[in-house]
Structure prediction request, 295 residues.
Amino acid sequence: MLSMVKECRRTKVFKPVLDHIPYAKFIGMGCEQFGDEYIFTLPSNDNNLGNPTLPAIHGGVLGGFLENSAIIHLLLKLDTPRLPKTIDFSIDYLRAGRHKDTFAICEITRQGRRAANVSMYAWQTKQSEPTAVARAHFLLEST
Amino acid sequence: MKENNEALADFCQRGMADIKHSEVLGIETVSASNESITLKLPYSLNLVGDMETGALHGGAIFTLADQTSGFAVFSHLHPQIRIAPTLDLRIDHMRKSTKGMDLFCTARCYRYTDNIAFTRAVLYENDIDNPVAHAVGSFMFLETVKDQGWLK
Prediction:
């Protein structure tokens, strides 16, 4: 897997690493690189809706999108040979996720030998108006 | 002993048909009482997070926890309906899920205030005492409700 991740870093095409995780494909997420920053995308998709009246993105999808963004972010930033495992994940919803494209950035707040703490930030219209923020711990396996 | 509430179970199952993402995940209502709600996420290769182990992705598990906790908020209030979107939800993963196994979630709303409902949920395969994950959440009741006719 590490060789695939390295190839993605080189080509800046992240589809292979996203396709490696069936759930990422299921919700239709993407990833783009701008300078040294990775921006994760969740294009609007009828299958991701929750409340049909607003309509709003299902909160669960937003959580899954952010969790998976953090996993991909860790893969791209660290040379970890295995997929990071989620220990815990916590999300605060700040606004209803509307039926449109969602974006996310991640930051590794602290990286230890065995675990990493990651902060995630999602927005839709403006980056200054977050839809949700999340934090999580991931177990990093060296073998 | 909790009493199964058929009307509430039926309400959850009908609601699910309108909640597009829960429908595409194939989430089903298993049981509903005024104390707790149990939903099932059928195992699917599309929802795997790690192809080496076949374990479900945390995101799919999280969605089941969110959906079940959200319905648990309705449980004590039924047949009255008050919409309460998720304010926050935290999940702790005890172990990875097992390849090929359906995942169940039982959630209860243990405290209501005028504005907030507090929930707890446990996620498991065939044994609730061997959980895959635990989740705690807060839901905030909407003040004004647009037409939510789909919930009737």
In short: Chain A touches chain B at residues 20-27, 46-54, 56-61, 63-65, 67-68, 71, 82-83, 85-93, 96 (CB under 8 Å). Residues 24 and 68 of chain A are 7 Å apart (CA to CA). The beta strands of chain A are 30-34, 37-42, 85-93, 102-111, 115-123, 130-139.
